[in-house]
Every structure is written in C-alpha cells, then in structure tokens.
C-alpha cells in the first residue's frame, strides 16, 4: 500500500472515507443521572407525572383571586383581608374566599380560591390586617400552573438528546434516577518518537516533553468519548507493534501521534499495513498534511488515525477529521460556534490546500476584527492564545485585509 503515501486528498474526501469505513457498534448502558452529563440519551424519557405537581407561586407576594384586584391603582387600591401565610413545603391549611389573600413565597403551593399572585412590591400591609393592592393582576399571573412545564405521557427528553445541566434538572424533577445512554467510544492515544519523555521527566539533550498525548486527551474528552493514554513508544518496531496491538483490542478508535511523515524511522504506516486497511495518507490541509487513517483488517468497528507529530497539526487534524466521526457515532448534534469578523491583515496561502489559520478576535467600537496568529505548527502557545480557526479555501491564494470571514470558536471571546 506504499502507493497511498502522500497521494493527498481533500479534507472533505478524508472525512467521507472515515464516515463510510468506520462503523462501530452502537451500545447502550444504564447509568445514574449524576453520571449522565454530556452523554447521549438512548431512550425517550416519558413523564409519568405533572411538573410542577401543583399551582405554585413564581414570586414572593400575596396569593389572590385575580378578580378581586381588578381596577386597583395607586390612588384607589383594592383592600384584601390577610387570612394567613402559605407554609413552604406543605399544603395551605385553608382556602381563600371573597376579598381574602394569603402571603405566599416563591415556590409555595397556591391555596384553593387563588389563581394569581400579587408581587410584594405592588402591595402594602396595613395596620388593620388588610393588604392594599396597588396594581391589578390577571388570572395566572406570577403563577406556574400544574403541568405547565411537563405533563404525563409527554416525551420530556427525546432519545438522541445531549444531556446538559438543564436536562439533568428536568430528569431529576421527573423522579428519574437512572436512564439508558449510548456508550461512549473508547479512544486509545499513543505518542511515538525517541525524542519524547513524560511531563514529569527532565528532558535530555535533543528530547522534549510529550504534549500531544495530553492535548488529544482533552480533545477526546470534549468530544464526549473516553480517552486512554498508553506509554510512550520509541522508534522500535517491536515496542510499537506490541502497544499498537493492545490499543486496537481495547478501543474503537486509536490515535497515533507522530510517525506519519515520510522518513526511514517512521513506523506508523508499516505497522498499519500489517494490521489495517489504509484509507488515505495525506490530506490537502495546512497544518495536518501527513494525516493518515485505516481500519483494522476484516472489521470496520475500529478506526486508526495517524496524526502529525507537530502539536498544532495534530490539533487541527483531530478537530477537522476525527471529531466529526466521533460526534456522529456518539449521536451528538452540536453546531460549531462561529462568529464573523473583519480580517485585519493580508494572509497569503498556497492554492491546492485548505489552510486553517489560528486567529485572535478583537472587539472595537462594536465591531469584531480577526487577527491572524502566525507561527510554526509545533507552537502550542499559538493555540492557547487563539480564539478559534479561520479557514482559507482550497482554491484561494490567500485572503485580503478587510475581508469578512467566519471564525470557528474553541474559546470564549
């Protein structure tokens, strides 16, 4: 399969090849709701009860029959008899009748006979035990009705929903304590190269600390999958083969960082040809050209991706080719956050490759400006300083200052 080496394809073709050839099995598991954050629902969660289960006040104030307040004003208030206070966490001990009211706190159950709440600041307690109401309220005002949020039989959380903080709140309000979710993909991460040492080691001459493993660890977590780090692999065939074989047995996706460029000491392609069917080697993207992908021979549920050794190249290649495949399998449909801004300076590019440029956004007088961050693909700090990525299209020979461009964000402005 050596003929595949650096016969570059477009980024769209690379994504398509991965999507068409990687088909991991969908698995589900039942988990506690406290573990469900950032997971994808594998079942419809159907409500069995009303939420809320009773008419409740949404403001501190006075529970009233709205009709008793009609016509009230600052100059001619409506006077209601205060007959008690609604206890929090239990039902009111009495009903209210004509021209009567009860004090009610936010979240308390409305007494029978009440259909609205007058806000505290719109009323005044008088010395004779009456309440002066200075503004009328409509039926249902400042009240959440029984079942207004969720009703029995309603699909409160549909299958395929990404569980965020707000979904956790709904699930708990329904009394559901466990649910079926799709299993997260397990992703093995291997960094290769004699020059690498762990972050807790002191580098010797010609050595550097491994950063790719931890960058990829974070990216995999952000995508909703489960990362697993393997020991650093030197440029030795047997060590590489043993680690690689273990990784493809334990994961549905294996990321190999380094060893994907042309060179006599690069082993990734050689090992992949033993274990897998190479899909492509070389993508018309900058940075990230040496990216390669393969599936394991005889099976399509394990994907192997060889990422470039330069940190920025590995980051961009993961974001543009690996993350979409992970998101699709994990059923996550979260749109990319993007903003438009005006390019501050000319950015040259070479036609025939899609260039992904790190950029910083600057807000001035209500306008957003896009400032390119230039630097080699080994400079991780450029990613840390960047708000996102601007893409120069495949056919373009750069972009001129003043051009309005979209920026895909990975950091808040």
Describe this structure in words.
This protein is of the alpha/beta class and 413 residues long. It folds into four domains: 2-27 and 184-329, 3-Layer(aba) Sandwich (Molybdenum Cofactor Biosythetic Enzyme, Chain A); 34-50 and 150-182, Alpha-Beta Complex (Molybdopterin biosynthesis moea protein, domain 2); 56-144, Molybdopterin biosynthesis moeA protein, domain 3 (Beta Complex); 338-409, Beta-clip, CATH 2.40.340.10. Helix content is 19%, strand content 30%. The chain has seven helices and 27 strands. The protein has helices at 11-21, 165-173, 212-222, 237-250, 268-275, 311-329, 380-385, and strands at residues 5-9, 28-32, 45-46, 56-57, 61-64, 78-85, 100-104, 116-119, 123-125, 130-133, 143-144, 155-157, 178-182, 186-191, 196-197, 208-209, 226-229, 253-257, 276-283, 285-286, 292-296, 303-307, 338-343, 354-364, 367-372, 388-392, 404-409. A seven-stranded mixed sheet has the order 1-19-21-22-18-14-17, with helices on both faces. Helix 1 (11-21) crosses helix 6 and helix 3 (212-222) packs parallel to helix 6. The chain is elongated.
